[in-house]
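pinned: reference chain
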Amino acid sequence: MLQALLVLAAGIAAGAINTVVGSGTLVTFPLLLAIGLPPVTANISNTVGLFPGAFVGAYGYRRELADQAGRAVRLGTASVVGGFTGAVLLLLLPAGAFKAIVPVLIVLALVLVVMGPRLSAWMKSKGHAKKSEVTPALWGLMMFAGVYGGYFGAAQGVLLMGFFGLMLTETLQRQNALKNVLTGLVNMVAAVVFVLTAHVDWAAAGLLVVGSIIGGIVGARVGRRLPQVVLRAVIVVVGIAAIVELLA
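pinned: its C-alpha cells
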C-alpha cells in the first residue's frame, strides 16, 4: 500500500512537471527502480503510465493551441516517426546505450533556453530570423527529439523548448502548449509499441496513469499563469536538476 501511494504521488508530481516544463520521468523512473522494477520494465511502465497526462495538460493549454493546429499536425508527424523509432531502439539496444549523451543533450537544451533570445537576435542579424512556419530543419529536430523521447524521455520537454526558442516566433506559453502535444504523441506511440511487444508492470503503470492525469490538470492551471521569465527560470532549474540526477 505504501509503495502504491508513493507511485501515485510520483505520478501526480510528474504529470504536473511534464505539463509545465518536462522531466517528470526523473521523479517516477528512480522510484520505480527503488520499488524493485528492472530498468527496462521501469522505463516501459513509466512511458505507458505518463503519456495520458501530457494530453490532459495539452487540453489545459487549449487556448494557446487554438491557432496552432496545422503546426501541431506537421510537427506531430515527426514526433510520431521519432517516437516509434526510439521505442524500437530501446527494445533492440543495450539499456545504457544513450546514457552518456543524455546529459549533453540536456545541457544543450538549457543553453538554448537561456541564450535563446540572444541567439535569435544574432541569427536575425545574419539573415536567419526565426519563423512561424514549420521548416525542414525544425521538422528534423522534432524527429530527433522524438527518437530521444521514445527511447528514454527524461527532459524531453526541456529539449523541445530549447529547439522552439531557437526556431519559432512564439511566446514561451504557446511553445509550452505545443510541447505538451508533441511529447504526448511521442510517449503514446512508444507506449503502444511497448504494450504490444514488451512486459509492462500494469499495477505501476495504472497508478501513474491516474496520477499523471491529476498532475496534468494541476500543471496546466499553474503553468499558464507563470510569467515568461519565471517559466524560463523553472525550465532551467528543472534541467539542472535532471543533469545532476542523471550524472549521480
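why pinned: The chain is about 80% helix and 0% strand. The chain has one domain: 2-247.
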